[in-house]
Amino acid sequence: MPNVWPPSGVLSGFREFFTEFYSTCFRVEDDLLRAIAVCLGLEREYLLPLHSGGENQLRLLRYPAVEEQKLIRREVDRIGAHTDYGNNVGGLEVEDPNEKGTFTPIPYVHGTIVLNVGDFLQRWSNDVLKSTMHRIGAPPLTPATMGSHPNSEQTEQQSPSPRVIGSRYSMPYFIGANTDILVDCLPNCYGPERPKRYEPVWVRD
C-alpha cells in the first residue's frame, strides 16, 4: 500500500523527516537481526537476506487524552492486549508469561528502544523467543503524563475534577520478512528433545 503524505504546505518537512527516520530504523533493523541470529546460534548474517524486501511498516499512533480513573478501572483501554505479527509518557504494559492476565508497566528509559518479539519470530524460533502480549494502559502519574486539569480554579469546597492523562504518541516500526519466505523452524531451534511445534507457513499467507 503506497504512503499517503499530507501536503507540504500543511506539514512542512514531514515527508523528508519520516523518510530519513524510516531509513534509520531500517539500519537499526539489520543490527537487531544480527543480534537475534547470534543469540540463536546462527550465522551473524543469517536473517538479513530473509528481510531484504523492505516489508516493513512505520505507524504513527496517537492515543487521545483520557480520564485517569477510567484507565485504572479498565473502563477503557488505549489499546487492548495483543501480540504483534515510546515516548516519555509511558503506558506500555507487558503480560507476565508466568501469570496470565498480570501486566507489568515497562518504564521509559531515555535514549532506548523497546523491542517486542512478534508472532512470526516466535514461530520461526519454535517458541525459544516468545511473542509479547502487551497493551497500553495508564502511565505513572508525573507532570509529563498529565494533561489539562478541567476547572483548575476550583475552591476547596468544590469536588475535584477528574484528572486527565495527556495524549500518548507512539511510532512503532514493524519488521517484516520477505513475503516469498516459507517460515519453518530455524536451525538450532528444534531437535529430538525439542520437536517442531508449528507447521511451515508462507509469510504471504
UniProtKB/TrEMBL annotation:
<feature type="compositionally biased region" description="Polar residues">
    <location>
        <begin position="148"/>
        <end position="161"/>
    </location>
</feature>
<dbReference type="Pfam" id="PF03171">
    <property type="entry name" value="2OG-FeII_Oxy"/>
</dbReference>
<feature type="region of interest" description="Disordered">
    <location>
        <begin position="136"/>
        <end position="163"/>
    </location>
</feature>
<dbReference type="InterPro" id="IPR050231">
    <property type="entry name" value="Iron_ascorbate_oxido_reductase"/>
</dbReference>
<dbReference type="InterPro" id="IPR027443">
    <property type="entry name" value="IPNS-like_sf"/>
</dbReference>
<feature type="domain" description="Isopenicillin N synthase-like Fe(2+) 2OG dioxygenase">
    <location>
        <begin position="60"/>
        <end position="175"/>
    </location>
</feature>
<comment type="similarity">
    <text>Belongs to the iron/ascorbate-dependent oxidoreductase family.</text>
</comment>
<dbReference type="InterPro" id="IPR044861">
    <property type="entry name" value="IPNS-like_FE2OG_OXY"/>
</dbReference>
<protein>
    <recommendedName>
        <fullName>Isopenicillin N synthase-like Fe(2+) 2OG dioxygenase domain-containing protein</fullName>
    </recommendedName>
</protein>
